[in-house]
Design a protein that fits this description.
Elements: H1 8-13, H2 17-32, E1 39-42, H3 50-68, E2 74-79, H4 83-93, E3 102-104, H5 110-119, E4 122-127, H6 129-132, H7 142-152, H8 160-166, H9 173-180, H10 188-199, H11 203-214, H12 224-249, E5 253-257, H13 271-280, E6 286-290, H14 307-319, H15 322-341, H16 346-358, E7 361-362, H17 366-369, H18 388-404, H19 410-415, H20 419-422, H21 427-437, H22 443-449, H23 456-460, H24 470-481, E8 497-498, H25 519-538, H26 548-551, E9 559-561, E10 564-566, H27 578-583, H28 586-593, E11 597-598, H29 599-616, H30 632-645
Parallel strand pairs: 1-6, 1-7, 2-4, 2-5, 3-4, 5-6, 8-11
Antiparallel strand pairs: 9-10
Amino acid sequence: MNGEMLDVNAVLASLKDFQRKTVVHAFRRLYLSKHSSKRFLVADEVGLGKTLVARGIVAKAIEHLQAEGDVDRINIVYVCSNAAIAQQNVNRLNVTGQKDFALATRLTLLPLELPNLGERKLNFVSFTPGTTFDLKNSTGVRKERMLLFHVLKDLPDLDRSGLRNLLQCDVGTDKWRARLKEPLEYDKGLIAKFMKFSGEGRELLDELSALCVEFHRYRGKWPQPLKKRRNRLIGQLRKRLAKACVDALEPDLVILDEFQRFKDLLGGESDASELAQALMNYPDVRVLLLSATPYKMLTLYGEDENHYEDFLHTLGFLYDNNKHVKQLREDLDAYRVALYQDATNGAEIRDRLQNRLRKVIVRTERVPATRDRDAMVSEPAVETTLIEDDLHRARALDQLTQAIGAQEAIEYWKSAPYLLNFMKKYKLKTIFMEHVERKTDLSGPLLAMAPHLLRESTLRGYEKLDPGNSRLRTLVDHTMANNEWKLLWLPPSLPYLKSDAFADAVVQTKSLVFSTWSVVPDVIAAVCSYTAERERILASGPVDYFELYDSRKPLLVFRRTDNRLETMSTLLMLYPSPTLSDMIDPMKLALDRGDRLSATELQKIAFERAGERARRMQPKSHASDGRRDQAWYWAGLAQRDVKQYA
């Protein structure tokens, strides 16, 4: 995008109305308001498209900066806790649609990329906090250390062999030395800043010289104290390199996605926080935070965190003004008192609070966005029934907790059965295992618990399994009552095919199950899956649970015979090919026709288009025995996908 103006309207046209409103408000607060905030939080509810909103803000920001003409290069920085998601989302934020504008890297590798960045008017760069800001006592990746070697090797009075061995770390010797011989192009101006930072105080370079002497002669195994000194030194070098990179990057807009996962970077005293602050405090930079859960609503008993102070800390970062935070705190205190006293000025204080918060935060939720203001979620009354065994289970669990000195477990009993089978790192399970290892006599409590534990004999014969809990029993009954276990997937809510495949299915929509305990999802998944699997398995004859995969012939098999891949055509049943998806899109076909297609009609279209594609994919080689190589049948699509989409 060299000098070309971005078509912002085209980007905004792809957004929903509420997303466009958020874009306009956030952009105005970041760039146009008389007292702009320079930092803003989009806190839309999960699933409402915060990344798409960010894309709209990016487009507006680029248009604004291009119109002003004060910058030679626009750099958008995206920070996310997950590297794979970061790379995916930075491509979504790339409003130009040109692949070479998006770069997923580490801050310390920027010297290798800066020449390319400098050649372009617009760049998108993504980082992760763990690899970009938290550099202390870390040796980083091989490429970072290769860069450090090439930069430092010509320093006067430095032992080059020692430097080579020092930076090798866990890379194989032959591979490391071969890589160091390869030429490495990097930005000289940025490295000059790094050398300036590294030379401040001399202590770092003195330690580098001393360690290079220690590492002069290669050893397969280095003493632990020497390794600690090495790791600390490399971490310090990487920190100074990262500091120089922030200056060279010249960010215009920094986006922190799901920032609550690394909110310590917003204002801590660590080296990582200091480096992050250098990025976010760069002159004229704007910072956009994205999070559906920027803070917790309340502090529970026994929690070490103070969520109210955490909320104010986030607002302190957004306002970047102690006076504004003080005014907000006073209004919050006043509003609390007004609510308790049912004061007449409560609405006035509320409106004042809303106006203060809207300067730095916006949030959209599903409830107001739906016609009936119910977020399209219903809460049906579900009746659960206790049976005699449930009470016996509670009594047995109580006997066990008393015998081992654990806290009362009645809340566990309410939520999940088979606790000793499924609990992992719970304190109750830990204390129990400690008593087992000490060979404490627990014969009485365990005898009472025995009928309420999973039995191997029950599972082996695929016998009926009692859910063991009134709530879980209701959930299983509700699921199995409609024979949902017969379906491979839930029927579509908006089908694009005319089909009777789900005609007899009475299927509910998704169910949400909430629980405080992490053991609950494991129990639900195990018991519900076993119950559904039991119905499917017994429908085709008895089998041993533990020998299921040995007794049933698998339908999808891939094998190699005489160094030749066989049955690979089966792969096409599983392989999600973008080429096929574009070529045969049932939804697009239905929209073009103006009506849904039958399965037969869709199969006919798919057969014709796939056949035409197959005729153009001619095999390029023959096997040594003269047979035509059929690998093109399954490999051709993958090759096509790589060329077009990789």
